[in-house]
Amino acid sequence: MKTEQTGTARSVAALNLAVMLFGLAAVIGRFVQAPSVVIAGGRVICSAAVLLALSLLSRTSLRLANKRDLGLAVFAGLVLALHWTTFFQAIQVSSVAMGTITFSAFPLFLTVLEPLVFRERLRLEGVLEAIALLAGVMITLPPDGLGSGAAAGAAWGMLSGLAYAVLSLANRHLSARYPARVVCLYEQGTAAVALLPAVLLWRGEWTMVGLCSIGVLGVVCTALAHSLYVAAQRRVSSQAAGVVSGMETVYGILYALVLLGEAPTGRELAGGTLILGVSFVASLRAGRR
């Protein structure tokens, strides 16, 4: 029992580290002057190459048990491509705060979808945490949030959140059967193939800053962060992982303040505090489970 609790606590720690790195991606993406689909494609091509190299060097078996798992991994990869493209689109048409805040709505989708997919009982604490997280999102949004590009940013962010919720459900099944590196390689390899045409057809020019940013996105914010996140889901439910991931909003806003000089408003601070509090409580509860 103690060993199991220690393993769960480590999974929660890995989950939180992964979310910190995910939050950095929103800011790093702003340094790349390219369409969102090109940024997402460059990111996933870089990360897939790193994961493939590590798998070959460590002689990791990449064989999946059956065609059903292969189909699920390919499907998850396509969803991953959609998630990252829509996320960067939300950041580009609005702001880091708007994109990360609206993306944080994905635990709401998980609260409904996870019990349906896995035929589990809908937990009251999960519902309450999701409602509290939604309240944090609503507090953070400015009163005139539908003006300018805010409405488009919110729409893209919500779509990104829905895609992430679906991806989390797929990862829960795959991560219980295969090593995290294998799951990530299949998903990111599929996403890389799907987005490769967009990267090749783009007629813009890569700058040194843009190339370095793509490298950081691919290696640190993707290959490393995604592997940690998938591995953590071996012992943490998708609902708990989803609520903890709400901290990505807080990290993204803090990174934007430090690296971009985007100071958060009072409403963003209030909503971010609520989101952080809910995520912290969910981390403690998941660690005791």
Give an account of the 3D structure.
There is one protein chain. With 289 residues, the chain is mostly helical. It has one domain. Helices cover 80% and strands 0% of the residues. It contains 12 helices and no strands. It is globular and about 50 Å long. Keywords: Cell membrane, Membrane, Transmembrane, Transmembrane helix. It comes from Allofournierella massiliensis.
Q: What would you call the structural class?
A: mainly alpha
Number of domains: 1
Helix fraction by DSSP (H/I, runs of at least 4)? over 70%
Strand-and-helix sequence, N→C? Answer: HHHHHHHHHHHH
Spans of 5+ residues with little confidence (pLDDT < 50)?
Answer: none
- Morphology: globular
Number of strands: 0
GO cellular component, one term: plasma membrane
Transmembrane segments: 12-32, 38-58, 70-91, 97-117, 124-143, 149-170, 182-202, 208-231, 243-263, 269-287
Main location: membrane
Family: Belongs to the EamA transporter family.
